[in-house]
Design brief:
The chain is mostly helical and 229 residues long. It has 5 helices and 7 strands, in the order ββββββαααααβ. The protein has 2 domains: 4-37, no CATH class; 57-221, no CATH class.
Length: 229
């Protein structure tokens, strides 16, 4: 029984459906007994739309990544150290607050026994919890910087912007009367120096990230549009 072909010879009937006579690579056509070259090396390529623009690293990208990761690595160490060198200061502030309250209201009902110790322990626990939360965020920021997560770039930028306020606060403390002294609390002068020294790299990194974003984009990565094939 002879094979039934379509008028153009491009299909044959297999008894159920029409099947193409062209080979998968487009180079041959089946005539019912042999494969005949079609003269076409490859099947015609389908039109492909251009891919969406993607961001590619620049010479600024890795230095910016490592700077942000390094800053938050140092911040993680600083966060873990806070309970050790601030514990005594928190206790002193708590005692000063209770003493000032007792002096201002000498006829008030005395505080229950152990209240001062309880509040000191509570503040110490809160300090440790804050340090651990800060450590977790610093680790997340390090991972985000190394992976160049876009959303994390803007979060870090905002937080660094708030960090620059520490520089202004330290400058105000050096130039004028301390707000803490006005409130009756004595804050060590070295704490302002620590805040001032930490605010300098914070501000520098903040400015660098703004310039990188304005010049290239998040994480200093520029847009690249693939060519249409």
């Amino acid at each position: 029984m002879s094979t039934r072909f379509s008028p153009d010879g491009m299909y044959y009937w297999d008894g159920a459906t029409w099947v193409t006579t062209i080979s998968p690579d487009g180079r041959f056509r089946w005539d019912g007994s042999t494969w005949i070259p079609t003269g076409q090396a490859y099947p015609p390529a389908a039109y492909q739309q251009a891919d969406r623009p993607r961001r590619v690293p620049t010479s600024w990208t890795k230095p910016l990544q490592y700077s942000v990761a390094g800053w938050y690595a140092a911040s993680a160490v600083y966060a873990l150290s806070l309970p050790f060198w601030m514990g005594g200061q928190v206790t002193a502030v708590m005692n000063q607050s209770i003493q000032r309250q007792e002096q201002a209201q000498p006829y008030a009902t005395p505080l229950p026994p152990g209240f001062t110790e309880f509040m000191t322990s509570f503040m110490t626990a809160a300090l440790w919890i804050s340090a651990l939360v800060g450590l977790a965020f610093c680790l997340l920021a390090i991972v985000a910087a190394l992976n160049r997560w876009t959303w994390a770039f803007y979060v870090v930028l905002v937080l660094l912007g708030f960090g620059t306020l520490g520089l202004l606060d330290a400058l105000y403390a050096f130039a004028g009367p301390s707000l803490n002294s006005f409130s009756g609390f004595n804050t060590p002068a070295w704490s302002y120096w620590v805040g001032f020294l930490l605010a300098i790299p914070d501000t520098a990194l903040f400015i660098w990230m703004i310039v990188a974003m304005a010049r290239f984009g998040p994480w200093a990565m520029r847009k690249e549009t693939p060519a249409i094939s």
